[in-house]
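Lab notebook, bench 4. Still working through the backlog of constructs that have no structural model yet. Next entry is a single chain of 82 residues. Request: give me the structure tokens for it.
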Amino acid sequence: MRHAALLGLAVVLAATPALARPKTWDQTWSVTGTPDVHVVVGDAHVRVHAGPAGQVSTHIVYDLKRWGLVVGAPEPTVVFER
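Model written out:
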């Protein structure tokens, strides 16, 4: 009976979503002239918006949504270069 209860608890825990708050990265640069912006992604949704003149801003949100047991979920590599 005890094994059945532990197995039931394991199934419930494996079926719950992995609760993690999203990570964010923000960076802003003042620029002159016409900036050249490059975005390189492997597997992501990307939105690019025009902003105020003389400024380049980035706002990155990483939100992992998985169900079940998550072991060693890799985080993205975010590199800002100027």
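Notes after review: The longest helix spans residues 2-15. The helical segments are 2-15. Flag for follow-up if needed.
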